[in-house]
Amino acid sequence: MNRLGETAKQIREARGLSQKRAADLLDISPVHLCNVEKGKALPSIELAARYRDVFDADLFVVTWCLHGDVNALPAPVRDAAQSLASAFRSQLGLFDRGEVHAESKDAKESSI
């Protein structure tokens, strides 16, 4: 499983969604979502944009926050990158063990 697929699965599972329901929300087939989550297909830019719209989470940024190596960055940007990762983890409820704990957009809207 590639890191993007792993993150896509974590976001979906954290929201308690089946692959079928998440695929419906993302307007893709369940087979394609399964392939993305298993690392057999990479998400397109359009699909990444739908993740942002549907789940309020940027797939690439969340992946970097969960799996990125801040120490590999040049020294001048390391502190800024660590601050960004920390803020993003806090905003989405991400924890070091790689779990995503954030309310789904539907849950937020239904509680309003």
Automatic annotation (TrEMBL):
Gene3D superfamilies: lambda repressor-like DNA-binding domains. This is Helix-turn-helix transcriptional regulator. It comes from the Bacteria. InterPro entries: Cro/C1-type_HTH, Lambda_DNA-bd_dom_sf. The lineage of its organism: Bacteria, Pseudomonadati, Planctomycetota, Phycisphaerae, Tepidisphaerales. Residues 9-60 form the HTH cro/C1-type domain. GO terms for molecular function: DNA binding.
